[in-house]
Fold this protein.
Amino acid sequence: MPANTLDLVTELTLRRATPADLQGVLTLLARTAGWLNGLGVRQWPAGGFPAERIEPLIREGVMYVLDDGEGDAVPAATIAVDDHADAEFWTPADRPGDALYVHKLAVSRTYSGRGLGEALLDWATLRAAAHDRPYLRLDCAKDNPRLQAYYRRAGFRHVRTVDLPHRASGALFERDAYAAFPAAASRRRTPMVPAPRSAHAAQSLRVLDITAHNQLIEC
């Protein structure tokens, strides 16, 4: 299976999730949701998502996992990228078909601070450009300025905030895919990812090559 390789002390691989990954994905999302809620951020339900919310993403082939290929129960990270624009947030005036949309981006706390989220967003942006979508879009919690600042630092602009009483999310962001990757999949981009602090680490920085396997970007 085509994969993007993250060169850390343990090699990680980005791949499409399979039905066998469902429980691990649910566990990672539940842990991330619990951590967010512990910070007072109501981005996701405190207990995570039911299987029926995640199974369709895996079945449609739009959920990806980053793991070491050793059968670990919980992946290092997850991301879903599809063309499903949330109709409560994105209106016809936004031209929903002009974008791909990020959902369920989560990084295990074990790997936090190592740039995995930023690298996955770069990969998703390159995927949007390769599919002739001018934008990569996402929505996040209305009351989480820290997360919103994170997306701004990652090159996203705030489109607007939709304040619906029954939705914790509603801060809408988009990133210009063509500006980020003007040559789409033909351009090589390798964000630097800090390695774990270890006496055995051979170098201070490791590299995630998000363009090493164009098939995963383009298919």
Confidence is low (pLDDT under 50) at residues 1-9, 185-213.
